[in-house]
Amino acid sequence: MRDKISRLIPAIIMAVLLVPGSAAYATTIAHWTFNEGTPGVTATGSDTVLDSSGNGHHGDPIGGPIYQAVPGGGTGLKFDGSNDRVFVTDSSAFSTLSMTVEAIISLDTLPGSGQLDQIVFRGDRRGGLDPFYLGILGGQLRFLITDTTGAVALHSPNPLPVAELMHVAGTIDNTTGAMKLFINGTEVASTTTTVRPTHPLLAAWSPGIGIGNLQESGNQYLDGLIDEIRISDVALTSSEFLGASAGDGVPEPATIGLLALGLFGVGCARRRRNTSDLRS
User: What's the pTM?
Assistant: First the structure.
């Protein structure tokens, strides 16, 4: 019986690794940690803001955002609220029915009444047709999604704090239509909607992802530090968010692969031991 199990383990490993969507970072579309820079150094160059998801969504820093050390180690990217931003080339991977957009930020100032500052944005030059963004409107956290049927947005009930490192997130679940807004893992607003973050973008209108502003030069510049941003194609729970006690969010199937390989090793060891027992 043990020999039969040992012979099955390689097949089990292959089945696990070849399950659709089980590639590394299977539910992470993009993940920018800003750890590629040195504190005090200006970010420059094409594709130098690295996407650690392995999906290649690297960014171009524009206007001179500066790498800055963050509490607990690593670096973030400091935006001056004037002309700093990061541009990421658009991809159909960002058009997903379920989504989590999350970031770890620290704000230097809040935008004035009616002013919108962007944390992370997807859209083109056309106004009001943006598939999604997570930003700050007049001091309140705002998560907006749009499709061809309309738009829906959630707002935090209170202004965000200044000079405080915090986690912010917006989620939309395609199955239930539940749309939620979180600050430091606590749900602060929610609704149920039929809208999904999938409004089509037009290549002729410069589509893309904007970090710290719109995807193109506009007046929605963030004044503060972004430590990390992750976009996932599932509606995560608060225990799966960046920095959560459950273990930093989305499980990587690479871990599953290591577990499977471990089981394979155990099976082989048992098989060798059984063979030795028969020989003695």
Answer: 0.81
